[in-house]
Amino acid sequence: MLTSNSKDKERSLSFLCCWYLGRRRVAMLLLLSLAFVVFVLGSYTINKESSNSPNIHQSIETIEFGINQTPLSRELSSFYTGDSNNDQTTRGSDVDIIHPPPSLPSHHPCDSFSFPPPPPPVLRRPGPRPCPVCYLSPEEALAHMPKHPFESPVLKNLTFIHEESPVKREEGQGGSEFGGYPSLEDRTNSFDIKESMTVHCGFVKGTKPGHQTGFDIDEDILHEMDQFHEVIVASAIFGKYDLIQEPVNISEMARKNIPFYMFVDEETQSYLKNTSSYTEDNKRVGLWRIIVAHNVPYTDARRNGKIPKLLLHRLFPNVKYSIWVDAKLQLVVDPYQILERFLWRTNSSLAISKHYRRFDVFVEAEANKAARKYDNASIDYQVEFYKKEGLTPYTDAKLPITSDVPEGCTIIREHIPITNLFTCVWFNEVDRFTSRDQLSFAVARDKIREKVEWSINMFLDCERRNFVKQVYHRDVLMNMKPPRASSSKVLPEPLPLPRGKSVGGRANTGKKSPGQRGKRRHRKVSAGGRNMR
Ligand SMILES: *[C@@H]1O[C@H](CO)[C@@H](O)[C@H](O)[C@H]1NC(C)=O
Ligand SMILES: *[C@@H]1O[C@H](CO)[C@@H](O)[C@H](O)[C@H]1NC(C)=O
Ligand SMILES: *[C@@H]1O[C@H](CO)[C@@H](O)[C@H](O)[C@H]1NC(C)=O
Ligand SMILES: *[C@@H]1O[C@H](CO)[C@@H](O)[C@H](O)[C@H]1NC(C)=O
Ligand SMILES: *[C@@H]1O[C@H](CO)[C@@H](O)[C@H](O)[C@H]1NC(C)=O
């Protein structure tokens, strides 16, 4: 549209030129008019910023980087891109305003980094794309690993609820056999940050995560998962949904010291046996160490995927830092470089990218409904619940928070009590409501922030695209129909729960009624458009 428009202008301008001035000056005037068109289109893009067109928002992002030319110490990366009427330079990520960047030994090598000028608008491709990120070398990055753990505010000792037979007290109560059925009172307590807390965090059955808890893992590997690692990278494929992506640009040092773990279910395992170098003996595909999860608790592959994504600290209790990468993404930057850039340099304990154009939960919910990500009734129920609790649309008043909607396909974090609590309560929201974790992220975050000073580094989506490359889900790649959950039943709208009714929700009492197991398994998401998140 823009391009043909500009060509028209160009043509009529050059016609006028010929008419009045003759051929001699045509070349120069043509150049001038082209410059003029470029300028006009540039301001047009800026003025249209409040529209919802993705490519326009993305170009704004690029324009700002060009105009501001800020050094990286100003965290140029974290401009908020949703609203044109505000001074962009006052906006930083929520991390930077609360905690100024750590004063690293005088000059950080990236201090002088600035974004290159954006390409002229006529040359821009539509849609979200990567932007430049200044990394240290892997060796330098490792040297910047903090000497001491990030101090967990208030919370120092986090333990997890264990119950052999989780009791579902009411029909329609959120939760599952795997995550338990926390009452609303339990939920409230899990946000009441104290020095010592015990919360629901999946794996409620069995003596340890992965051992008779559902999501069961072979004993030899379970033992390996107990070992200490400074850094791990993790991902998962359930329902042979994705193809394994081999990470690239990984330093020798990282290959040696950082294990890459890929969780798969049995179905995906047998697919790997047929189609890759995987065998029962080596349990590897390239860099990835394959971990098979047996008895996965949910029929919806995407719910199973939330277990390793949000509960890595339970599966790997002795790991300091983790990078989660959805399996549809290929890692193309060294993990040490990513950790240095997004955690250590900004003094953060958890980093996640924001959605490239939506930053309001209510808007996100509508988009999820329109894209048929989940049944409308369940989404409405969840959002109504949050609204009654006080969730409001995103506005500037929430600054320094720059977004309520994450692009959660990567999570970079240090495993400390407060981040572990955050991902536990986030998982509990996902288990209580829809599996759309971008709807519950802000609620989990803000309820913790009400009590303690802690923040999440929400960086730009274009920066995320710098270190992970999107590949298509297997079904798209192979032009196949996406696998469907085995049940076609739609999650019934949960009934509103009376508050404060059940006390002692973590008691290890109560009998499991026959047929109770698996009742909550029948959550189904309508297929289609799975590639979008
Ligand atoms: C990093 O943040 C923590 C708490 O959030 C604070 O105590 C510490 O002083 C900060 N460190 C630096 C170097 O800014
Ligand atoms: C942490 O809390 C648990 C459960 O309340 C308690 O048993 C344990 O002793 C505590 N650990 C420390 C180090 O305080
Ligand atoms: C590896 O990193 C370099 C720059 O650091 C980048 O140009 C290249 O595209 C990366 N390789 C792949 C396969 O993405
Ligand atoms: C793997 O190959 C075997 C034998 O060729 C076949 O029976 C089986 O269905 C295949 N499994 C998968 C998951 O493709
Ligand atoms: C769900 O809501 C969306 C947007 O509000 C609407 O487009 C769609 O038709 C609804 N789907 C059903 C099944 O009602």
From TrEMBL:
Q: Does the keyword Transmembrane helix apply?
A: yes
Per the record, the domain of life is Eukaryota
Q: Where is this region: Disordered?
A: 79-101, 482-533
Q: Does the keyword Transmembrane helix apply?
A: yes
Q: Where is the composition biased (Polar residues)?
A: 79-92
In what residue span(s) does the TOD1/MUCI70 glycosyltransferase-like domain sit?
A: 158-473
Keywords for this entry? Membrane, Transmembrane, Transmembrane helix
* Positions of transmembrane segments: 26-46
Please state what the protein is called.
TOD1/MUCI70 glycosyltransferase-like domain-containing protein
Source organism (scientific name): Brassica carinata
Lineage of producing organism: Eukaryota, Viridiplantae, Streptophyta, Embryophyta, Tracheophyta
